[in-house]
Write a structure and sequence with these properties.
Elements: E1 5-10, H1 20-34, E2 42-45, E3 49-53, H2 59-66, E4 72-81, H3 85-99, E5 105-112, H4 121-134, E6 140-141, E7 148-155, E8 158-167, E9 179-183, H5 189-199, E10 203-210, H6 217-230, E11 237-244, H7 246-255, H8 258-279, E12 284-286, H9 299-306, E13 313-314, H10 322-332, H11 335-338, H12 360-367, H13 373-382, E14 385-390, H14 399-402
Parallel strand pairs: 5-6, 5-7, 9-10, 9-12, 10-11, 12-13
Antiparallel strand pairs: 1-3, 1-4, 2-3, 4-8, 7-8, 11-14
Helix pairs in contact: 3-4, 5-10, 7-8, 8-9, 8-13
Amino acid sequence: MIYDHLVVRYGELSLKGKNRRHFESQLFETVKRKMRPFQGLNMSKHFDRIVIELNGQSYEPIVKSLQDIFGIHSISLAVRAENDLEAIQKAALIALNEAIEGKKTFKVTGKRSLKSFPVNSMQLNQEVGGYLLRNTEGLTVDVHNPDVNVKVEVKDTGTYISSKSFEGAGGLPIGVGGKAMLMLSGGIDSPVAGYLTMKRGVRIEGVHFHSPPFTSERAKQKVIDLTQELTRYSGGKIKLHVVPFTKIQQTIKDKIPSSYSMTIMRRVMLRITERLAENNHAMAIANGENLGQVASQTMHSMYAINEVTNMPILRPVITMDKLEIMNISHRIGTYDISIRPYEDCCTIFLPSAPKTKPKREKAIRFEKNIENLEELIEEAVNDVETLILEEGKSTDETFDDLL
């Protein structure tokens, strides 16, 4: 194997001032957990990077796993050399030859963090670049737009030479932004909202409203599988709270004018999610609402619905086109699960003409028709089923088992 190390570079967290050490520690813990399936790796944390010694392991699956971790800007394949100019030049030639096939131009980007090294960054560019030109054919230097950039970084632990990098997920490390409850319906939008919420360093717990027998076990399993897929990005585990919602939905159908049933249902969902957030020490609610997409997601509807909670509501996909959301869904692996044809509770008892501009005052008045609403909410919260999904472990009941 030519490459013997991976250099994992931090992204946005490198700008976080006094919080930087905490952010780096959170990221390192996530990387260590993510790397557990790979045997024989040595990892070390440095001021501006994590260095992984491969010890003969194939880099492809490791890089793929690292690309799921928020807080990583890039992952570079690297050759390590001793802090000796001749050794650095030879290692740089190896790295260039590995990457240059079919390409014609290169440049050297030297960085000397170890100030006791006798060659400064500018001289390093010249010494290594000249050596590469003398020992290759048909190549020229292009300092502005090279086909290959040979990065040479002199550190106290050795010199790392890289010529091939992979894009990381960006964002902030999981755990630095608190916790939010994700309202997870089973559609395309809410898993993407969960992914984007986690990208800002927020841990999530899922909340799904299940209305048997009107919604099937297949619909529930669909949400379990979506949560399982999101564990790839969570740093380990995600809790999923399944709320029994049948009695409340039937009561809304019987007591509320049909045009306002969706508005009242969403108000009740928010109340229950807020209770679960308080019980699980979360500070916000996240959902997949997209402005104007359906009747409950107009500005008027949000105004009438949001009144029931003072918790911040995070809506990462609110301004996106549907195609943008679908593209992210494909990329993160949730799309094929989301389009399974099993309905969630939002689609049952759906009124033929839901209000797109509901009045808050009317919603409050209609809600009073349900005299035992607080009792129903308390009962639903008390009867919640909580599942713990963990990356790399299958759920007790898979979608295939249900067919």
